[in-house]
């Protein structure tokens, strides 16, 4: 706002006019973020800190938005690629993992015997396409890799393979109890997902939670029982026994002897 004072020369009036304009522009500039501001020369400077033109910001917004979209698409593509690789590995081995995860690396391992005085019970399932039966193979070995007991039998197949794995482990626990192996036994589970569920406290809220709780119900009848995951690569003997059981449709048990069909694997 210009202020005129009578009695002043034109030069003094011009000086006061410039001073008032400067105060007005400084006040508008100090309104803060989000306000329009004027420069000392009376030109509009735009939004923000009073030093960035609106026309420049309107040109930058589409560029920033496009870069953000490209970044999100790249991240989504990388995630989908990783998911595809895992799905292919899963399907290649009939729904069961084929390698063991140790210290963050995927490493192919062979079966290893337990410590002296302990036993390992390996469990495997063989799924036949278009069949309502699943073959189960169970092998109990000591620290010298000697087969102490083995069983091959068939069970009714379930639409959810996780249920079939759970039924197989439950039947194997019953087999170990009935044959006298009730302490210092490591149960090798053929499904990583089932192994993870067995590590949770009861009750299990998964779709196969009833079977998980049934498996846990055997634990009070045995001492020092542990669960671990075993892949197909490390479980060829039990896997072959399960395949033979599925093809013969018979239930067989061997005590203190090795089944002839798996002698080449043990």
Automatic annotation (TrEMBL):
One of its GO terms (molecular function) is nucleic acid binding. InterPro entries: RNase_H-like_dom_plant, RNase_H-like_EbsB-rel, RNaseH_domain. Residues 130-245 form the RNase H type-1 domain. This is RNase H type-1 domain-containing protein. It comes from Fagus sylvatica (Beechnut).
